[in-house]
Amino acid sequence: LQQARTETDDPAVRTALTDARETLSRVIDKSERARDLRKLLDRAYQESTHPVRLDEVLSSAVADVSAAYEAEFELGDLPSVAVVADDLLGTVLEGILENAVEHNDCHPHVGVDVRTTDRTVVVRVADDGPGMPQDGDVVFGRGATDALNHGDGISLFFADSVVRTYEGQLWFEEWEGSTPALSTGSDGTVFKLELLRADSDR
What we know:
The chain has 202 residues and is α+β, with helices and mostly antiparallel strands. The protein is built from six helices and seven strands.
């Protein structure tokens, strides 16, 4: 695709080839995420978790998704805190962030912040998209048998599956105006990821 793009002078063709390359790149990324899911299922949840710096992993995930999509990210409080997780946490966060961008037909505006308690940490990812048309069990593919048919796709099913191994929770809420983590004052959807603090007694 890159070679074909450099060999044509037609702006419309170049734009189409660029779009095709970006789409192909996202398909490859989804395939890699599916392989990650297979590894997760194969290990049968036997891998041990360990303290992971949420602020560092979240900042990296936002940077990666921001570079891949045309979206505006608004970062709120990202306190320095370690959570109970493993090396898949970054992939989980990227999946949630990508979902906030991919289902927005307009220029996506995404807000991200973190709230802490003595025992838990909650990551909030808010968007000003059209909202979720299905309930949580369908969106996250809970109870289904084919990973490719899970809710909104492999990303959210993967995220939900991994978070459960951390003894965490993932859910979403719909808001009408003044959506948390967004300064636009618009309607939106907020995905919330609750994880255990690594420094708590649980």
